[in-house]
């Protein structure tokens, strides 16, 4: 909370009494209003309050990207879009269309909306399809999908391993990141493509 120092000469009905204070914004006005009854001020209180409010307005600066106000005696910045508060000023802070930008101390932080992830200070799309458990970006920005069992990453999306006719005369069975063909009777080969000549 900012403070405002002042010298104020207060006179009661019997004599003088000099008081020096340093009080927080908001508390000052409350104290002055309480002391108004039973005391005479050497400086007209209404003029003092007007000057204090003008001083307070000058202290309330959020920069060119913000609107400043006081709430409960504390300074409050309302920052415009693509900006965020940093050390009492609204400064540019952009994480892209998939994220919200905030500052933790002086450090920029992007809060990304799923399935987006942070990459070089921006939230970028990272979607592997409905059959993925998660998506992340590699060192060079390539998408890396963690697919559900029976699915494998093909062209950036989790695709069913046995989707295509991998086994011509048999059934496809997913095994880890690959598959195996269970051939129908009378067929052999890795794709059940060979007909048994015997028998």
Automatic annotation (TrEMBL):
UniProt keyword Protein biosynthesis, yes or no: no
Gene3D superfamilies for this protein: Laminin (2.10.25.10)
Cystine pairings recorded for this chain: 183-192
Classification via SUPFAM superfamilies: EGF/Laminin
One Pfam family of this chain: EGF
SMART domains from the UniProt entry: EGF (SM00181)
Keywords, comma-separated and alphabetical: Disulfide bond, EGF-like domain
Annotated ranges, domain EGF-like: 163-193
Protein name per the record: EGF-like domain-containing protein
